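for the recovery benchmark. tokens below, seq after
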């Protein structure tokens, strides 16, 4: 079994093309002001424009995979529609425009004003998610931790503890798959139905916990052997520098976001 199957973060250096070549902190800092502003806007045009901006950045800077396509084309628009319709049912009718009736069932009516408010809420949530995906889809947890330690001066005792935690999850997935294969070979907990599934999962718990304890002990011994925490700082093996292109990306994103807010100005004076 290759090391990549156990630790997906042990792969070669990431590509320097597009968003992958930027510092993870730059990809967090660039959309952060727009995400904060979206919490307070109430119109529909502003989140739509910021969603379009996030889509443009993702489609031009991230790898175009089937997963990304389904997420952007199907999942997010469907989520906006479902959330928007659901929120429109909770809107106070006395505070919306009731001139247009969309649906009427008995004494209950869904008005166009309520639907617009619900859709604005759904699109606003989707816009925040789309902006967050700029960093989420093109950065790894270890690189984010390294950037925080190197640029934000987060104590390495905290940062590299988080780095070890990031590597626990794929390791547990690998060990769970090994346990499943061993159970299938031995014919343990066979059969179908909810009771057989519960029996199988119960049989995974003890060996998975034992493997987790062993892995934690090995990590602790490795960190102790490297004098982890004995000195105020450590020499970095993997550098995640802040370059000029990171500054340019953040500045351009802020300028475009400010232009969108000025153009639509979702507040009244």
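predicted aa per position
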């Amino acid at each position: 079994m290759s090391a990549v199957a156990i630790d997906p973060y042990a792969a070669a250096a990431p590509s320097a093309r597009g968003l992958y070549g930027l510092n993870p902190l730059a990809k967090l800092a660039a959309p952060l002001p727009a995400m904060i502003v979206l919490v307070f806007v109430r119109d529909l045009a502003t989140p739509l424009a910021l969603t379009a901006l996030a889509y443009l950045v993702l489609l031009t800077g991230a790898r175009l995979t089937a997963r990304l396509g389904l997420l952007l084309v199907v999942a997010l628009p469907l989520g906006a529609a479902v959330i928007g319709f659901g929120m429109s049912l909770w809107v106070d009718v006395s505070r919306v425009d009731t001139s247009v009736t969309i649906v009427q069932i008995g004494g209950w009516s869904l008005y166009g004003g309520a639907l617009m408010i619900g859709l604005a809420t759904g699109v606003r949530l989707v816009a925040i998610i789309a902006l967050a995906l700029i960093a989420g889809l093109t950065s790894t947890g270890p690189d984010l931790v390294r950037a925080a330690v190197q640029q934000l001066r987060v104590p390495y005792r905290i940062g590299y503890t988080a780095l070890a935690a990031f590597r626990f999850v794929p390791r547990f997935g690998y060990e769970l798959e090994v346990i499943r294969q061993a159970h299938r070979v031995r014919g343990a907990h066979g059969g179908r139905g909810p009771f057989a599934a519960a029996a199988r999962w119960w049989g995974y718990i003890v060996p998975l916990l034992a493997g987790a304890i062993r892995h934690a002990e090995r990590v602790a011994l490795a960190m102790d052997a490297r004098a982890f925490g004995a000195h105020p700082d450590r020499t970095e093996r993997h550098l995640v520098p802040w370059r000029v292109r990171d500054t340019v990306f953040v500045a351009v994103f802020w300028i475009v976001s400010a232009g969108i807010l000025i153009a639509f100005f979702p507040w009244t004076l």
